[in-house]
Specification:
mainly alpha
Length: about 110
């Protein structure tokens, strides 16, 4: 027994092959523009034109990776105070070691 979809129903294969869902304007080679970001009234705005530093403590400390890239600790907001203190102590030492190693590597080249 075969079933058919009602005319108003689309299947995933219909969506992926549909021109309106392909990321292109129909009849044009230009991609569709991105939608506007949501209007969030709770979003923080930062004016960094003054040249002063901005504290983002709620994001947690910066982690210097071995390759020199920077990252943050994903679960910083869930950590207890003692965990945060220990993490800062360890990260401070490790970040300094990694920065020095990266500087030494640059001096050798």
């Amino acid at each position: 027994m075969s079933t058919t979809n009602p005319p108003s129903t689309t299947t995933p294969s219909d969506i992926s092959s549909s021109p309106s869902h392909s990321g292109q304007n129909p009849g044009s080679s230009q991609p569709l523009p991105l939608p506007e970001p949501p209007k969030d009234t709770n979003a923080a705005t930062l004016d960094v034109s003054s040249g002063q530093g901005v504290k983002l403590d709620h994001l947690g400390p910066m982690v210097v990776n071995r390759d020199g890239t920077l990252s943050r600790i994903a679960n910083w907001t869930e950590m207890s105070d003692i965990e945060r203190k220990n993490t800062l102590r360890i990260l401070g030492k490790r970040n300094q070691l990694r920065i020095n190693a990266l500087k030494n590597d640059d001096n050798k080249d």
